[in-house]
Amino acid sequence: MSAVADVPSLLRDAVGEAGLITDPADMGRYLTDWRNAYSGRAAAVVRPGTTEEVAAVVRTCRDAGVAVVPQGGNTGLCGGSMPDDSGRQVVLSLDRMRRVRGIDPVNQTVTVEAGVVLQAVQEAAAAEGCLFPLSLGSEGSCTVGGNLATNAGGTGVLRYGNMRDLTLGLEVVLPDGRIWNGLRGLRKDNTGYDLKHLFIGAEGTLGVITAAVLKLFPAVRSRATAWVALPSPQAAVDLIGIVRALCGDRLTGFEIMSRQSVDFVLAHRAGVRDPLDAVHPWYVLVELGDTLPDAGLGGLLEAALEEAFERDVAADAVVASGSAQVAELWGLREGISEAQNFEGPSLKHDVTVPVSSIPAFVEQTDRALQKAVPGIRIVTYGHIGDGNLHYNLSKPAGSDDDDFRAVAEELARVVYDSTSSFDGSISAEHGLGQSKRDVIADYKDAYELELMRGLKQLFDPDGLMNPGKVLPREDGVARAER
């Protein structure tokens, strides 16, 4: 019997019958991502219930020379949690590790296991009068482990930072099966290297994150939200300057959307409507928040908009009059990604450039894309306050799906080359996974990649921890796939 064939029985000893899936039909949902964009095969899916069981699984697989693919909520966009098609890898799902281990409102921290769904963390914080500010479209299904593995961002980065900024401590199972307990809720700890940052954003290639201590904040008790029509991306950059100057850190959200993005949502999402009578080329959704229940945010926001109108920055605006209208406005923003799927293949790109470069970047990139594919529909939206744009592409109306997919790589290069020319990054918050694993070699400094490979070799010398992800293949083949 081969080592791989032996592994399921050994894993059963580690996690019990309830923690092991070997039937192909039952494994199915773990072997295809939520968009049906990536799929693979596995020798088994293992679902440990404790950190010790995770360690036992990793040791068992190491001893057998079998690769481990950690998986959270399986909501990623780059294939980072999918096994390859060899059928020799083991998917390690954290979906049974869903305990909130503790919450400390005085220290403003919450300790949770990696399989806890993001929305559950938000709710646990709210029950104690606190806020956990990470907010994503997939927050009802994505998990803390996946958020950490990809250094998730979302709509609150402008005020609160991304997952790296929201994390104080980690518990990690290393590739040799040892457990590192770094679950410290300290904001000051100058005792050497801050190891947690090696694992955040590493997409499971250096170890399996099993728990985390996360920062909490005082609950937001008042908000003001506005939908603002703009003539250009430059106007959006000008507007955020106006709002920041007047409102300071009360600015908690600033989301930009092209008209094409809004049109798709209006066409395909029920219960939404255009907030304004006239059509405009660009929009931003602006939100202020404060811990005071009556902070006068409406007046502040209106004052900022008044200045924007005086300077011909804004063309029109509506300030939400209640929670229902706030939800409607956010529904327009959050519905973009799903609505685009109704228009055929959605080529998704997640890039970041300096905020000051956004207008020139959009103009240059749009021009190059239209030259490459005349009539292409460009769905640009994102977190303009931190320079992150989701630069998604849909086929020209009436054209063939397969023809459009055939030029996906060419179009990606257009977006990435333009991003690079502005000293940007080709992955702002989605990670590299397998989709950008090889292309990153053309946009990242060679010495930086050498340092990353050195870390991988140090932590995972056998190359068994989520192989084929993040790092470009050497000589075209990942070591564990040879």
Brief write-up:
The protein has 482 residues and is an alpha+beta fold.
Give an overview of the whole structure.
- The protein is an alpha+beta fold and 482 residues long.
- It has five domains: 3-93, Uridine Diphospho-n-acetylenolpyruvylglucosamine Reductase, domain 2 (2-Layer Sandwich), CATH 3.30.43.10; 100-218, 2-Layer Sandwich (Uridine Diphospho-n-acetylenolpyruvylglucosamine Reductase, domain 3); 222-336, Alpha-Beta Plaits (2-Layer Sandwich), CATH 3.30.70; 344-421, 2-Layer Sandwich (Alpha-Beta Plaits); 439-458 and 468-481, no CATH class.
- Helix content is 33%, strand content 19%.
- It contains 16 helices and 18 strands.
- It has helices spanning 3-15, 24-27, 51-64, 118-127, 144-149, 157-160, 196-199, 233-247, 259-268, 297-310, 323-334, 336-340, 358-372, 401-406, 408-421, 446-459; strands at 20-21, 44-46, 68-71, 90-93, 100-104, 109-113, 130-131, 167-173, 179-182, 208-215, 217-218, 222-230, 251-258, 282-290, 316-319, 350-352, 377-383, 388-394.
- A hairpin with a 4-residue loop joins β17 and β18 (388-394).
- α1 (3-15) runs antiparallel to α3 and α8 (233-247) crosses α10.
- The longest helix is centred in the middle third of the chain and has 15 residues, at 233-247.
- Mean pLDDT is 94; it is low at 476-482.
- It comes from Blastococcus saxobsidens.
- This is FAD/FMN-containing dehydrogenase.
- Pfam families: FAD-oxidase_C, FAD_binding_4.
- Its cofactor is FAD.
